[in-house]
């Protein structure tokens, strides 16, 4: 998720403590999960402010990740980090191939669909608020915005070349083959 007015992205969250030596449980929003630790430049959001943090060790644990925060060596200290979001610099993300996008790049784009009567014109359906990972495919959550055709929220499958016909980041626009009544 992109942070307003900054180049920092939320990449994970500390969900609890692990053991007695200052390790914490991490829910990573990256795919694969351990990519979070390849990015570096980590910051934590505490009461609206960002503070740098260093993870000096990490490993997979069950279905998630655990990590040790440098300088935090007991469970009581680690408890103070529970619930904090982990942010990384957007510039630390690897470049993608043409036609591939990070979720934060899609958030905020205007979504234009087909006009149902003529099938020729395009109508503004809303803006991408966020995406949902469903397993089969990702889903765009499109919220109504100023100028949109109605006030409906729409869930639109993010299927390139099937539903999503064009993404223009520079124009802030996405065209979808999606009718108003779908």
From TrEMBL:
Transmembrane segments: none annotated. GO terms for biological process: ribosomal small subunit biogenesis; rRNA processing. The keyword Cell inner membrane does not apply. Residues 11-89 form the RimM N-terminal domain. Pfam families: PRC_RimM (PF24986), RimM (PF01782). Coiled coil: none annotated. Its main location: cytoplasm. InterPro entries: PRC_barrel-like_sf, PRC_RimM, RimM, RimM_N, RimM_N_sf, Transl_B-barrel_sf. Keywords: Chaperone, Cytoplasm, Ribosome biogenesis, rRNA processing. GO terms for molecular function: ribosome binding. Residues 103-178 form the Ribosome maturation factor RimM PRC barrel domain. GO terms for cellular component: cytoplasm; ribosome. It is found in: Cytoplasm. The keyword rRNA processing applies. Belongs to the RimM family. Binds ribosomal protein uS19. The PRC barrel domain binds ribosomal protein uS19. An accessory protein needed during the final step in the assembly of 30S ribosomal subunit, possibly for assembly of the head region. Essential for efficient processing of 16S rRNA. May be needed both before and after RbfA during the maturation of 16S rRNA. It has affinity for free ribosomal 30S subunits but not for 70S ribosomes. NCBIfam families: 16S_RimM. This is Ribosome maturation factor RimM.
């Amino acid at each position: 998720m992109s942070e307003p007015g900054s180049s920092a992205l939320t990449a994970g969250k500390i969900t609890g403590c692990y053991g007695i030596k200052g390790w914490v449980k991490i829910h990573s929003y990256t795919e694969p999960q351990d990519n979070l630790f390849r990015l570096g430049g980590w910051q934590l959001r505490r009461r609206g402010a960002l503070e740098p943090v260093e993870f000096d060790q990490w490993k997979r644990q069950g279905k998630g990740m655990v990590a040790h925060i440098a300088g935090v060596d007991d469970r009581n200290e680690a408890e103070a980090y529970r619930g904090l979001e982990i942010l990384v610099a957007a510039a630390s993300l690897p470049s993608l191939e043409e036609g591939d996008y990070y979720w934060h790049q899609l958030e905020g784009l205007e979504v234009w669909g087909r006009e149902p009567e003529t099938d020729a014109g395009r109508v503004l359906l809303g803006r991408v608020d966020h995406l949902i990972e469903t397993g089969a495919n990702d889903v765009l959550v499109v919220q109504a915005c100023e100028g949109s055709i109605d006030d409906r929220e729409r869930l639109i499958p993010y299927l390139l070349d099937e539903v999503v016909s064009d993404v223009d980041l520079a124009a802030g626009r996405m065209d979808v083959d999606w009718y108003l009544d779908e």
